[in-house]
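pasting input
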Amino acid sequence: MLVLIAEDDELILKTIEHKLLKEEFEVILTRNGKEAIEMIIQKEPDLVITDIMMPFASGIEILSAVQQMDRPPQIMVLSSLGQEDVVVEAFDLGASDFMVKPFSPNELIIRVKRLIRK
Amino acid sequence: MNLLFGSINELTLVFLTLLIIVFILILLVMGYGYRNYQLLSSRRKWTTLIETKILLAILNGSHHIQDDVELKDLLPNKNFRDTFLSVLIESEKKFSGDAYRVLIEIFHTLNLKDFAWAYLNHKDSFKKVQGIEALTTMRVEDALGDIQLLLNNPNPFVVAEAQYAMVRFKDFKGLEFLNLLHTPISEWQQLRLLNSISEVPATSYSFISSLLSHSNISVISFVLSLIRKFRIVAFHDEVATLLEHPNSIVRILAVRTLHDIETERTFPLFTQIYGQQILNVKKAILHAIRKSKNKNSIDFLKIELIEGKPSLQIIAAETLIEFKEKKYLQDLMNEEVSNEHIHSIIKHALAVRI
């Protein structure tokens, strides 16, 4: 299973990466929205975990771009407190799940597994 | 001639002295800049190192961190400890659950608690704020008493951080400081406090009630936000009494709150006090009616469309369109051929809504 993580915070990015590797997922790391969109189109991951606020292209822009694909991947959105409106917009655009920061990395893995099973 | 040479010598001496002073100043500024640059670059390097250590602790547990040679070497450095504390505080905004517990373990294992205490007792207000933030983030309950004393600090930033700490430690009960608060709470601070409150116990209703008659307007504003957030309908009638408050901002916030905790009594109440209100309160009432989609208000809106001030007429017309009264408006346009003003307002509303 291939998971793409789009996150500009290095500590969060690396924590999720290592947690996923431990669970034997294949992982692609991207640090900005534009790079994420390119990689999603190129590598066609099964799941994308994306932060809402990112340089060059936001999580919402990633969601819009992904919906143009023939087989769009599942998207899990990471948001911060107070971004409820954006989360609603993300769901309208096809997001499958969301987590609010601060988040528990262990809970994220449980949710990733559940999404993949679907 | 000697006099002339004497003056030239003196002038040269003065010039040279000035030159030396300027040179020394340039050296000092350069030295200070270089030191800051070095500190900044060290902090960047340390941040990466600390984040790596935190990552490893989250993944494998914090038990190895005490014996970490790199950290042992660096921890005696005050600037490194300061950076470590900042990274830990930042990390708390990222992680919860087990990962958050690991952050607290690191804080205690590396004795950063003493460092944070020292900040709390520092005479510099900025350091005090950092100390409060660190001790609160890392849940050092022993610090609560000392932080509480800072609620009366002359520095407003220290006070704001102490207030926030109270709520983070004690949830709703941490709001007791509001009783005696005479300085305004900023909107940002209100938002921070509001976000940190997870529940309002039913036993606290008399406390909330007393705050609604507080002399500090920002406290009333905050309490109304709290009622809105938790949709505490039990306060409907008490909030309604604020529609007669001498401050129009309170009256506007009361209208918004009543809209959020609406009952069958709300709309009749609005129409009852509408006539005595200033323009902005009237606007707030019309917006509340619009959002509540209360069809009982159609006749009221029709009157307001004819008799209200232009800005109110526009809201009334737009609301009537939203309430599917487009036909009424079109008929009115045909009937009221003489009233160009209403004509243009309806036209405007139709154009906006279509």
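fyi The mean pLDDT of chain A is 91.
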